[in-house]
Design brief:
binds zinc ion; 3 helices; 6 strands; Quinone Oxidoreductase, Chain A, domain 1; three-stranded antiparallel sheet; single chain
Length: about 110
């Protein structure tokens, strides 16, 4: 998968191939259809918000559930979902993002 990665303050984002982490029993894997880079993301890249790089930006994605862990009960494969850091949306479960470290490996 590709991600917009913030690597250095006041520098352009870098689009990189990432290798997702293996999901756990409480995780949901979502095939992202689209994700914006919002004003909060831009505030992180200019130092207004304290978010140290490297970081994957784009926390407002929308997509389709592709896999659910054994402990997840509120969504199922095929559900259309949105990602958000706000509490109501967080009830649907959590999703882990690929780390910059894992991105150094080529995608399978
Ligand atoms: Zn936002």
């Amino acid at each position: 998968m590709r991600a917009a990665v913030y690597v250095e303050q006041d520098q352009p984002l870098i689009i990189e191939e990432m290798t997702p982490l293996d999901p756990g029993p409480g995780d949901v894997v979502v095939e992202i259809g689209a994700s914006g880079v919002c004003h909060s993301d831009l505030s992180a890249t200019n130092g207004t918000l304290p978010l140290p790089p490297p970081t994957i930006l784009g926390h407002e994605g929308v997509g389709t559930v592709d896999w659910v862990g054994s402990e997840v009960s509120q969504v199922k494969k095929g559900d259309r979902v949105i990602g958000s850091s706000s509490r109501p949306a967080a009830r649907a479960g959590t999703a882990r993002m690929a780390s910059r470290t894992s991105a150094s490996r080529p995608a399978p």
